[in-house]
Amino acid sequence: MTDPWVALEPGADPAERVRVLRRAHETFTTAGEVARPVRSVVAESWQRSARAGVGPDGGASVELSDGDLGTHRAEHPLARVMPLFRELLGTFAADGEHLLAVCDAHGRLLWVEGHPATRRRADGMNFVPGARWSETAVGTNAPGTAVALDRPVQVFAAEHFIRRVQPWTCAAAPVHDPHTGRVLGAVDITGGDGLAHPHSLGFVQAVARAAESQLALLAPPRLGDGGALLSALGRDEAELRLDGRRIRLSRRHSEILVLLARHPEGLSGDELLCALYADESVTPVTLRAELARLRRLVGPGLLASRPYRLTAAVESDATVVERRLEAGALMSAAEAYAGPLLPGSQAPAVVRLRRRLADGLRTALIAHRDPDLLADWAHAPWGEDDLEVWRALAAVRPVPAVRARLAALETELAAPGRPVSWPLGGATYLQRPPA
Questions:
Q1: The predicted structure's pLDDT at residue 422
Q2: C-alpha distances in angstroms, 280 versus 144, 273, 346?
Q3: Residue 276: how many CB atoms within 10 A of its CB?
Q4: Could you count the other beta carbons within 10 Å of the beta carbon of residue 265?
Q5: What is the structure's pLDDT at 244?
Q6: From CA 80, how far away is CA 83, in angstroms rounded?
Q7: 325 and 261 part of one domain
Q8: Is residue 157 within 8 Å of 166, Cβ to Cβ?
Q9: Do 214 and 113 fall within a single domain?
Q10: What's residue 154's pLDDT?
Q11: Over pLDDT 90: what percentage of the chain?
Q12: What are all long-range contacts of 399-406, with beta carbons under 8 Å and residues at least 24 apart?
């Protein structure tokens, strides 16, 4: 296989590949071993699906219906580009007896359109608007896996984790907010074996990029004069979007902007020094040098002194999560949470902010007891060892895989010398590459 993201290499026999994949799927579901020639992206997805407690004979459940579905559709950013999706993919889906589907960032299908006979067949596996098709709910599938990996993916026939989905082939690509980079959902094309062609994957990816371009035109960033957007969740080096520029910041500059965005009234030199450095021997000269370098990087108009402050509104992704949490919009807050705030930072004030934000969100998730939201957190890099969340998940989704992971985690954390609390403050984890 020359491209691991493409399901079938040119010249491959689809029928033979299906037979091989079904044997491999049976081996995995009975013995837990992945046999060749299963692609690495599929093997890893099968493993994630099993850890999430998905069974090969399971199915999707409908979470949104009637008024709830209509409201969620109307409020979702991808509603603005549905005409584009229909224009670019709708005819292709209808003529090829395929389906056009669009999901949100949690893998819930918002729109499923296309050939009527194909839609009726898809109804039998609950591939319908309002159903949840995330990896943690139904295992390996193109829209759910595209959202989980944040990249375009093609899933062919028996590569699907659930058996009743294996007659289908699909290709999907994530769609991002063009201003913040966060995943809004995915656009998908689902149908027969013909979609395993490499052109299908490239086509759906091009449609996703076209949608992002249109979103940028339809919804420019709502900023005041000179305003900026700061992305600092799930990444050690933040990105500042300012006046049409995307500026990659060093770790120290990231910490400074996070703190100044948090304190629009400004911070004195002594306050900023204490917030950034645990080492009391660091002098004000060091801080002034860092601020001078930051001012040269972002331009003189954004950073003022006496006190140190930002002269324009800076919208931080961390602030977005906080605001949604305070409003009680838990699902929306979880969607916006891309990971711990500057996870590698040891700056005292950043560590406190990181803990407060993560603890606030996870506490709300535990109290809410939504199994899918808990599963999303538990299977994220920052939640793999979160004992309290795994206990909460086991209480509402007591499947064997979840119980086994909880038992292993309790044994591991009970070992001598191991902490029993959730160690986020200075923890590091595998991060996704910057958008």
A1: 56
A2: 48, 9, 14
A3: 23
A4: 7
A5: 80
A6: 7
A7: no
A8: yes
A9: yes
A10: 94
A11: 49
A12: 399/53, 399/55, 400/53, 401/50, 401/51, 401/52, 401/53, 401/54, 402/52, 402/53, 405/51, 405/378
Q: What are the tokens at 292?
A: 């001078």
pLDDT of residue 224: 43
Q: Collapsing DSSP states into helix, strand and coil, what is residue 245?
A: strand
- pLDDT at position 434 is 42
What pLDDT is recorded for position 421?
Answer: 52
pLDDT of residue 152: 94
Domain identity same for 106 and 78: yes
What integer pLDDT is reported at residue 125 of this predicted model?
95
DSSP 8-state symbol, 267:
B
- pTM exceeding the 0.85 threshold for the entire prediction: no
Element (H, E) at 186: strand 183-191
Point out the domain boundary residue: 218, 241, 270.
Answer: 218
Sign (positive or negative) of CA dihedral 165, 168, 171, 172: negative
Do 201 and 125 belong together in one domain? Answer: yes
Cβ contacts of 15 within 8 Å, gap of 6 or more: none
Give me 328's structure tokens: 């009680």
- Can you tell me whether residue 35 is helix, strand or coil? coil
Same domain, 185 and 149: yes
> How many domains does the chain divide into?
3
The β-bridge relationship of strands 314-316 and 228-231 is parallel
Sign of the C-alpha dihedral computed for residues 19, 200, 105 and 97 taken in this order:
negative
Backbone angles phi, psi at 346, to 5 degrees: -110, 5
d(CA 79, CA 17) in angstroms, rounded, equals 37
Dihedral, 323, 325, 328, 332 alpha carbons, nearest 10:
90
The tokens for 214 are: 């249109």
> Which of 237, 344, 320, 254 minimizes the C-alpha distance to 293?
254
Helices 14-31 and 40-51 pack at an angle, to 10 degrees, of 40
Averaged in consecutive runs of 10 residues, what is the pLDDT profile of the chain (435 residues)? 68 85 93 86 93 91 84 88 92 88 94 94 95 93 94 94 95 88 92 84 93 82 61 94 88 94 88 85 84 87 86 88 83 87 94 95 93 89 92 91 90 67 51 43
